[in-house]
Protein: Homoserine dehydrogenase
Amino acid sequence: MDKVKVGLCGLGTVGTGVVRVLENHQARIKHKLGCEVEIVKILVNDVKKPRDVIIDPSWLTNDPDELVANDEIDIIVEVMGGIEDTNKLLERALKNKKQIVTANKDLMALYGQKLLRLAKENQCDILYDASIAGGIPIVRTLDDGLASDHIEKVMGIVNGTTNYIMTKMTDEGRSFDEVLKEAQELGFAEADPTSDVDGLDAARKMALLANLAFKMEIDLTDVAVKGIRDVTQADINFAESLGYTIKLIGIAEMHDHKAQVTVEPTLLPKDHPLALVKNEFNAVFVHGEAVGETMFYGPGAGSMPTATAVVSDLMEVIRNLRLGISGNTMIDPQFKRQLKTDQEKYSRHFIRLAVEDQAGAFQAITNVFSDRNVSFAKILQLPAEKEDHAEIVMTTHEISQEQLLNSLQALEKLDVVNRLISHYRVDGEES
Amino acid sequence: MDKVKVGLCGLGTVGTGVVRVLENHQARIKHKLGCEVEIVKILVNDVKKPRDVIIDPSWLTNDPDELVANDEIDIIVEVMGGIEDTNKLLERALKNKKQIVTANKDLMALYGQKLLRLAKENQCDILYDASIAGGIPIVRTLDDGLASDHIEKVMGIVNGTTNYIMTKMTDEGRSFDEVLKEAQELGFAEADPTSDVDGLDAARKMALLANLAFKMEIDLTDVAVKGIRDVTQADINFAESLGYTIKLIGIAEMHDHKAQVTVEPTLLPKDHPLALVKNEFNAVFVHGEAVGETMFYGPGAGSMPTATAVVSDLMEVIRNLRLGISGNTMIDPQFKRQLKTDQEKYSRHFIRLAVEDQAGAFQAITNVFSDRNVSFAKILQLPAEKEDHAEIVMTTHEISQEQLLNSLQALEKLDVVNRLISHYRVDGEES
Structure:
């Protein structure tokens, strides 16, 4: 195999980037692979539209068959987006034994497991690192670099939109609604921001990362998700005064062969490496048994980072093809799927209560906790704006989810408690 | 090739770790490579010594020839340390067409270029990622993951000992001497700490990373080095009051096809990702034209992180062997070596002066700078402990090395300036 032939689906900003990267780095790529890579067909809507990049016009086509049913083509690189039609196109490509590289996160979220299974049946690879965290090679790292380590925890900021919003709320003291509107105007957030701000996008990615890290089948429905809509300036300020920053954090953990995966607004110590990841940047923190703590930080999206990630995946696919190990992307889960129960889920929490400012209130509240063996790291009573009212803000030591829920239920029944204002998970080592 | 056979030199903590990792991950490694890996010989000093790991006693030998002259063996994994004898052993192995993986940073610093050349002549690889930053796969990332990007800047904390010392000095307000002594007692610093605290170890690593990043031959002598011996508590406090943290930072930059590589105590904004890298941790920040900013963070050393990195390198060597592209580790420099002159080196600086507290002193000093077109970001005059004396602390905007040196010379000639106390580079984007 002297030359590998590629069919490119899509020639928008990412597709154009892929063409450029391949052109500019031809010599280096040959050096690293021992063979050449050539684009022979590009699927576009309009073959006559002027393009930003110099290409042979004969490459362009609007007929998918010229790619997926083309015997000459070894690999399909999909950077055109879309879900239903794209899924069908990739299914046909796999049945024709084409290797696949895709940057399509919506497609992988919906049809990823199915496509991976079909790829395996056809001895093909699907590489999708570009769909997870743009410029961060986290799939490859979990799958390869840390292959020889037992991974205990993966913790990350895997959604750029929500991190942008949380950063602006924290640094500029602005409200969620105001920052969301700005992010939409700047193109960092979609017109319908639900999938981002409610944590679904992050949850899909965490499910994929947990699969890879723990070699266990984890579905989206196994992820406990809470978005950032309800996080207020007051929450951010109280967290700050206790030494924490609030971020939307995905956490996948494994203890005693049981997994727990969550996505929720989480308090991190201000000097935790993830606390400093700002704006639309992503970062993934991995704790391995042997390696200890490692972190990967980079742009979560953007057309050039994505194009670069696509080319890295393309190189990996070619390497596998030449090694005769294509079809190994989908790893049959090595371990039986076991999830933690509420009794087994342990973490720290931040709790904010609106209370009556009267004698015995504080006592009544702390009794609820001590009856359930919940102990505090920090506790703070502050006067509220309304007379005769106060706020209590506290962080707990490690408690089970069951202890937390029991305590919150009991608190809501107390006369002196007006309202449970908010509660968040606390994570990250205190320095 | 169904089975790749490995000779392991050394069975200390790293060697034992390598044996364990290979044993525990045999299935996964086969899956990723399409072949098995087997250790067949281990070179040790004492074949009778009891070992922490279960091994076939017939593997053990104290005769190097049983490894390097053994036709059965494909790959030598060197984790025994030492320089002269080890160099000779690896030279013989290469002449016998053995592939090499090494974690030996002192050896690579002294004989790396020579060994890489010999490897190339013999169509062999030498992989040495474990020798650079322990658990961070930075060589692989520069060489592979970001292969398809132009790298503009590599900036990192690549020496754990100095980062440990700077962290303790900053967080606990202790002196260099005191912290160094503690680090020696804890085993984080060598009895002779010269190579670490004077920045040489970091300089060697930055030279290697600059080679990889810029595809240009950069030698140790091309790196401008300044260690941390002279950094005082007062420097740290003044930096802090201006919003900066002092770290020993290696910077390799490329503009207009000209490189500059430095290792020196550097002020970074307190919220820069590298400013939060604490204790013995390492981190490398890479700025690529397409990808933008990415950062890799992890333990700089330690026997299990190193063993894991060694096994990752071993897998890469096997992959290359099977792809028929062994011997490509040494890349002939693609670009002509061009270094920046003092007129072309631009950066920001922090300068501390002891001055006479008299009318016109401040004016005389600022005149020196303005005559040389140096403008300030921040400037601060403070009374010193001695009467009639003061200190001036300032940070400049970007100026050339030439402007800096000229200004400092002129200042030292001024009667009102008693002493140039210290000056450091300032880097990292201000938020």
